[in-house]
Amino acid sequence: MLFRDLKKTLNEKVENIYLIYGDDAFLRETSLRLIKEKALLEPDLNLTNLTGQEVKQDYETLYSSTQSYPFMSDKRYVVVRDFNPTASDLKNKVLKRVLDELPETTVFIIVNEKNAEQLAKKEGVTLVDCNKDKTVISDWVIKTCKKQGVIIAPSTVSVLASFCSNDMARISCETEKLIAYVGKNAEITKETVELLVGKETEYQVYKLADFISQSNYEASFEILFDLVNKNQDKYYLFSTIYYHYRTLLHASLSRMSASELSSHLNVHKFVAEKAITQSKRFKPKRLKAICDKLGSYDGAIKSGELLVDTALWNSVLNAMLME
């Protein structure tokens, strides 16, 4: 079934085995929450969380967890994340017993980014498709706005979704921000979305700076790799990163309020507020060093001494190494 059908089926019955899969983390976690809310009481006593790796190392733990009776609850829940058994794995006697001897009082939930194809073929496994879905996005945004007394047209939702690359986790955050900005009995227009919602590249650059501030090398290079692959104009990407760090340096050195900084830098107040918050994760000296290095790379690119791709990778590496 698709995500949008889950709530209706839960009103009729909670199934024994669910395989929640798809590329939208927000939809996956929302599906899990909806299933839990339907029949789980006293989660400290009736909920077991495992990883696929733990299960493959010890199927007996999974079996004993699924066979335990609930305490002060109609159901006991066992949740396993990132579990993709092969056809060979499914022949394991213990795992076979888990799937074939599941008590009616146990709800067994597998949560994966990718579909576990072999598991999906098993009789009794209920599939919940949580891949990005424009219909789900539109319905969710419109209903969420309506609850707050705010109007938004489907065409405006499409603009919001495109700015957020159809990612529900980000769309949910941006929707809350837009609702707070316009207030009750107002309308979120395309112009409001364009004013307040940063496009995907700007948002990813913001995340990149966050990971760099945490010295999270793996996540930083993962984001940069994704940005480089998606952006045909590499110099635009480099300029966006350079501009972002200059904004953070201004925010770090200035004693201006968000409103004053917004006017000074000619950016929206929300952007200024975010810059002030993020700049506190860096020492001003480090931001100055990063900006100086990016400035030298910019000159080298324009003079033909340095390729843009090289400048991008060196920029992130240097930003992480600078104290």
CATH class of the largest domain: Alpha Beta
- Per the CATH scheme, the topology name of the largest domain is Rossmann fold
Main β sheet profile: 5 strands, parallel
The separation of the N and C termini measures 50 Å
Uncertain runs with pLDDT below 50, 5 residues or more?
none
Task: Indicate the overall shape.
Answer: globular
Helix and strand element order: HEHHEHHEHEHEHEHHEHHHHHHHH
CATH homologous superfamily caption of the largest domain: P-loop containing nucleotide triphosphate hydrolases
| Structural class by helix and strand composition | alpha/beta
Number of strands: 7
How many domains make up the 3D coordinates?
3
As a whole number of angstroms, the C-alpha radius of gyration is 24 Å
Count, helices = 18
Amount of helix:
55-70%
**Averaged pLDDT:** 88
Strands ordered across the widest β-sheet? 2-3-4-1-5
CATH architecture title of the largest domain? 3-Layer(aba) Sandwich
Strand content: 5-15%
